[in-house]
Design goal:
The protein is mainly alpha-helical. It has helices spanning 2-10, 13-30, 34-53, 66-89, 94-99, 101-106, 112-143, 151-178, 182-211, 214-218, 224-230, 234-245, 247-257, 268-292.
Length: 296
């Protein structure tokens, strides 16, 4: 009976109207954020510059194809998208608790879970538009300059960046619920960003070297638990998703990471599913904590 009541609530049109109302508020507020405009322009400009000048250090100038552009752009997107997501998400709850607007919002007939869902949806839409417009416009310019365009893989690159942004928005919103001031929430969000991009990578090198030797990774024969640890990092999942579907990026990864293992848990749909879990779990934790949070 409780399951049926929950299912009925999920399909409630009134609930979705309230969620979309909160989402529209977040969209209107954050489209005035100069960081969103700046990052959109940066996505556009950097994709064009990387495509034309990406191989300049090798003594070659000229437009690269979309596939080759993705290889060079992936390193930048690894940082740029999470930074934008953190900027959008870290203060979304704690800021309104600090200035008193959250108490006013909750005085209306809206559930706390609906507020969280609406805020996440609105922020994700803002980030998605920034990524799609910036990278999409850059891809359009590049495709008009080169032959043999492979659009499907570039579309996958854009979609994967949007999903990665959703992961970091979800995590930063959870931290925004946990902490009681914006400074602490921002610091924790920045730490998580560095954890998954820098600290984790070097820790994996250290673990491999100490336990079984990096030569085992280069030979494509690391133990299975090494793969499982990597699957706990959303950035690793994102890179693996791209490498599974974009040949030049896979070749580049193998050049620096060694031979491809014969037995591994990597699969496109597994990577997508795990990234979606990375979005869902922090949101569920946020909902539980926000229900118990004292709003003064």
């Amino acid at each position: 009976m409780k399951y049926l009541e929950s299912l009925k609530l999920f399909y409630s049109s009134d609930m979705w109207k309230r969620i979309f109302s909160v989402a529209k508020k977040e969209i209107r507020y954050n489209f005035r954020n100069r960081w969103v405009i700046f990052m959109t322009m940066l996505f556009l400009g950097l994709s064009i510059l990387v495509s034309y000048y990406g191989t300049a250090m090798e003594g070659v100038e000229g437009w690269m194809g979309l596939q080759e552009t993705v290889v060079y752009m992936a390193t930048y997107i690894e940082y740029m998208v999470p930074i934008l997501a953190v900027i959008l998400g870290y203060s979304t709850i704690v800021r309104e608790c600090e200035d008193g607007s959250m108490e006013l919002l909750l005085s209306y007939p809206v559930e706390r879970g609906e507020v969280l869902a609406g805020k996440f949806l609105g922020l994700w839409i803002v980030l998605s538009i920034s990524v799609v417009v910036g990278l999409g416009a850059g891809g359009f310019v590049i495709s008009s300059m080169v032959e043999d365009v492979v659009l499907a893989e570039y579309y996958l690159f854009i979609l994967s960046a949007v999903i990665l942004g959703g992961v970091y928005i979800s995590i930063s919103m959870m931290l925004s619920v946990i902490f009681t001031n914006s400074t602490s929430a921002m610091s924790a969000s920045i730490f998580v960003l560095f954890l998954f991009t820098f600290i984790w990578l070097f820790s994996m090198y250290a673990i491999a070297e100490i336990t079984f030797g990096w030569e085992m990774v280069e030979a494509g024969r690391p133990p299975q638990w090494y793969f499982l640890i990597q699957l706990l990092n959303p950035v690793m999942l994102w890179y693996t998703l791209l490498a599974l579907n974009i040949v030049p990026l896979r070749d580049w990864a193998l050049e620096f990471g060694g031979k491809e293992p014969e037995i591994h848990p990597y699969d496109t749909w597994v990577m997508i599913a795990l990234l979606i879990i990375w979005i869902a779990v922090p949101l569920l934790i946020s909902e539980r904590l926000f229900d118990k949070k004292q709003i003064d």
